[in-house]
Automatic annotation (TrEMBL):
Ranges of residues in domain Acyl-CoA oxidase/dehydrogenase middle: 121-218
GO molecular function: acyl-CoA dehydrogenase activity; flavin adenine dinucleotide binding
Ranges where the Acyl-CoA dehydrogenase/oxidase N-terminal domain occurs: 9-117
Protein family membership: Belongs to the acyl-CoA dehydrogenase family.
GO biological process, one term: fatty acid beta-oxidation using acyl-CoA dehydrogenase
Record function comment: Catalyzes the dehydrogenation at the alpha-beta position of ACP-bound acyl chains. This results in the introduction of a double bond in the lipidic chain, which is further transferred to the epsilon-amino group of lysine residue in the mycobactin core by MbtK.
Cofactor(s) needed: FAD
Name this protein carries in UniProt: Acyl-[acyl-carrier-protein] dehydrogenase MbtN
Amino acid sequence: MTLNLNTGDYKIFRDAFKKFLRTEVIPYYEQWEKEGAVPREIWKKAGEHGFLCPWVDEEYGGAGAGFEYSAIITEELAKAGTHVMFPLHSDIVVPYISTYGTEEQKQKWLPGCASGDIIAAVAMTEPDTGSDLAAIRTIAVREGNYYVINGTKTFISNGMLADLVVIACKTDPGATPPHRGISLMVVEKNSPGFSRGRKLEKMGLHSQDTAELIFEDCRVPADNLLGQENKGFLYLMEKLQQERLVCSIMAQGLAERMLNYTVEYCQNRYVFGKPVSKHQHNTFKLAEMATEIELGRAFLLQLLEKHILKERIVKEVSMAKWWITEMANRVSYHCLQLHGGYGYCEEYPICRDSRDVRIFNIFAGTTEVMKSIVAKELGL
């Protein structure tokens, strides 16, 4: 399989989404950054154009397209420097419902997720628990036809806007080992006992609302359990391959964006009587970044093909997640340095991109966690 996402129907779709970004997102993004949120209206518009959950089956309101189309959306958002959380919703959260949900659950939630009427979030991280999911403390106790949930989640993207949240919770706190007691539950926005805490002020990604979620005797119907009780950890592990691939695509696209405008800047900015790009050190630095970006692109396309064919590539995706996100941060550092003092000014895109890219080697599993997974896959 030789995947080329710039030809045929892929190109038509890519061009349509780029037009959507030019008309509906880019002109307003700076304002959203200042306001700290993306308006719900843009989600509705994206849904109307088929840019949310394009892989969802037609019977549930989607287009039944392949993951390739999601990859195009993710890439173009990053290349535009607009981090609207469509990929989180479409390719990280909603697949839990599609894969593990009952027919009734899919009929209830998937059409709204595809149309933009429902915005989804996933809640795993807690104030005292990040990468060690087995140590979560949020508990769900079965009481008749309901589960009663108590706990707090933090760093939840789409946390303020979300209409439904897929949460990881303990349904068997005494399980040994602990991960065998984890279940996934869908909590809807009007569930009694569910509230939003602080909207967190972050270093970057200012337009993306990130929040604390609080569950105090939160009652949800037992029918909101996703899949089987106490199988949640397994479900999370099964979906992390795609989540980390999505993050790698985002980081790759942002690295390409930063290099592209930095090359142009260096060609037009003069120092000591000649363009910045004509000084040998700077020329070599740009060449080094271009080489690393090409390596990242080649590796990513290889993994994307394998993922579409449903191959298990946990080791390779973990490699990509840490290497590409670290590479994007190196690119950020050197691109800002090549901008000089202007790189520290908000009017230049490298300033915002440098803030935004820093989270990429933290969320969805830190670089250190990714290396641990690679080591485990190597039998170390």
